[in-house]
Amino acid sequence: MWIVLSFISALCLGCYDISKKIALRENRVIDVLTLSVCISTVLLSVPWVLSRVCPETMTATPFYVPQLDLAAHGLVVVKSMIVLSSWVFAYISLKHLPLSVVSPMQATRPMWTLVGALLLFGERLNGWQWLGVSLAIGTVFVFSFRNKQTIRNTRHTPAGRYYVALVLAILIGACSGLYDKYLMRSYDHNAVQVYYTFYQALMMLVVWGIERGIRAKREQANWAKREQANWGLELKGAWWVIGLISVFLIISDNVYMLALRDPDSLIAVVSTIRRGGAVIGFAYGLLFLKEEDPWKKVACMVGILAGLICLAIGSM
Q: pTM surpassing 0.90?
């Protein structure tokens, strides 16, 4: 069952990436990230409130949110900081780089997760699983190698900083995956998801408020104008897609954590399948955004799909 949940998570994660790309076209990273996290908090507050008001009824459903002790809350706060750091760098890179470049680069995250899984959790893969991981990650590395000249030419330009942000997002995201496996050994997946989202919202609101205050003081020359400064979200274009970001992320994270709770699940396999959702971003970037080098990216997409098929066969 955990393999099916992993593929569902991958599908939702691909749609999540597309929603982010659309929302970031005309909007600032901090505004999109803050609003999406707040929407997620509002949605997840429903099962949390119901679990407090009528626990007997909710325990019979898959949406019950149990309480966590103080130590667990501390661990969840750490998770919130790790995930939020990864998201900030990922959003920055996604706003300024082609989706068909960001998606395959993000798909290298399972390689780093695999190393951690082998060293920290003693996971062992069978032949099909090794073939699948090697195909998926190897294909992405070939793609990255073929684009190394582009990256080398841009690393000392304004675009270069966005590749650095992308690399940081990948490495921090890999740490997050290993930390998730650790948390799922001891804590309920609903509780972890709900509380880490709550903490993220608090963190982002603080950061957003500070950023808005600094901008208002910098842009306005006197107190009279400063009092008239716009403290609201500056949303443009298809801003309503931000709601879809929250919905797809909630579903993807929930089934992903549920998959990790299975004692037979392997974080190396789950993570690779989940990042395989990059093929959806590939397809969108090539078909609708008309991004460059389509055949290279199609070949990369086929390689990732082949790897995912091998993983599915080896996990049956």
A: no
